[in-house]
């Protein structure tokens, strides 16, 4: 008989995993125990953690969740997460994956009234099916997108020639008059991070609530050789910055910032040009992922949009969920 086990701390989950969600075994940054551990510690320190685990033979599934309210659960994810999904180990087939999730969904019926997962991509259909089989009322809603570039062996020159003429002309025009020096670093130092924070404080963005999380990410990825921290500088002063990570043939664009006082020179666009060139021709990546968000500028650099979904699950055993479930279902129908 399959059973679901629970862990209430990241440390307990890490001990139970015994290294199976470490970098050496998991190619995706967003599926590793150190990602979840750091995200919880820096961004949700006062929100109880619930980690579920089910195993069948050599196959297992893990769910990293937050107890966000009374009988309320959410995916352990936020705006830093490019995607969220169950994590499967042991290469289970589709039926086994569904069964593992169904067991955990049935376990959650005893304690939870409403669960939401976002941002979900590939596993949306599997999750909906498994939770419905377990007795949940499930609703899927499209919510934004994720912009991706697949290089398919192209070098930077070939990729760049296919960009919209408006973007290519802008870069050519601004580069001719540019006084910015481009600096792309693979290491992490306190001085580099102070430069990053300085640019962010002068950018168009709101104050960054997760700087400690981003610093921990940058330090961890630099130690693994995966950090790409780019700067555009004017006379040594940082005026634009980008935080990327690169590994396993893929580049992830985590954060971009620029000092608004230098908008006329487009240092952010020139830095993007250099970062893309470095990732494609030096790091030889085959995919670049711009993360969540449908900002118009992303479509100029990327070639494919992957829809993101929010999944809501309502426990019909609780009358308090009936009206919210109906409203959510109607919302999904009308878009």
UniProtKB/TrEMBL annotation:
It comes from the Bacteria. This is BioF2-like acetyltransferase domain-containing protein. Coiled coil: none annotated. Pfam families: Acetyltransf_6. InterPro entries: Acyl_CoA_acyltransferase (IPR016181), BioF2-like_GNAT_dom (IPR038740). Residues 170-298 form the BioF2-like acetyltransferase domain.
């Amino acid at each position: 008989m399959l059973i679901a086990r629970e862990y209430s701390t990241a440390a307990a989950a890490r001990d139970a995993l015994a290294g199976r969600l470490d970098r050496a075994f998991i190619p995706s940054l967003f599926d590793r125990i150190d990602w979840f551990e750091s995200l919880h510690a820096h961004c949700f320190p006062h929100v109880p953690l619930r980690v579920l685990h089910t195993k069948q033979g050599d196959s297992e599934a893990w769910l990293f969740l937050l107890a966000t309210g009374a009988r309320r659960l959410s995916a352990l994810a936020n705006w830093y997460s490019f995607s969220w999904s169950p994590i499967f180990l042991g290469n289970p087939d589709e039926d086994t994956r569904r069964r593992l999730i169904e067991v955990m969904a049935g376990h959650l019926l005893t304690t939870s009234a409403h669960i939401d997962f976002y941002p979900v991509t590939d596993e949306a259909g599997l999750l909906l099916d498994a939770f419905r089989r377990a007795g949940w009322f499930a609703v899927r809603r499209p919510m934004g997108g994720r912009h991706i570039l697949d290089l398919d062996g192209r070098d930077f020159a070939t990729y760049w020639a296919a960009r919209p003429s408006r973007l290519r002309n802008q870069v050519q025009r601004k580069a001719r008059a540019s006084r910015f020096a481009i600096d792309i670093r693979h290491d992490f130092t306190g001085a580099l991070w102070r430069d990053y924070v300085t640019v962010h404080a002068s950018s168009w963005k709101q104050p960054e609530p997760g700087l400690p999380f981003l610093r921990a990410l940058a330090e961890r990825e630099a130690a693994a050789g995966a950090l790409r921290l780019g700067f555009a500088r004017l006379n040594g002063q940082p005026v634009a910055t980008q935080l990327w990570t690169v590994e396993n043939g893929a580049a992830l664009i985590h954060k971009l910032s620029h000092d608004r006082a230098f908008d006329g020179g487009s240092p952010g666009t020139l830095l993007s040009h250099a970062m893309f060139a470095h990732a494609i021709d030096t790091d030889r990546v085959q995919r670049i992922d711009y993360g969540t968000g449908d900002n118009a500028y992303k479509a100029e650099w990327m070639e494919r949009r992957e829809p993101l979904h929010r999944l809501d699950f309502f426990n019909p055993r609780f009358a308090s969920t009936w009206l919210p479930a109906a409203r959510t279902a109607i919302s999904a129908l009308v878009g």
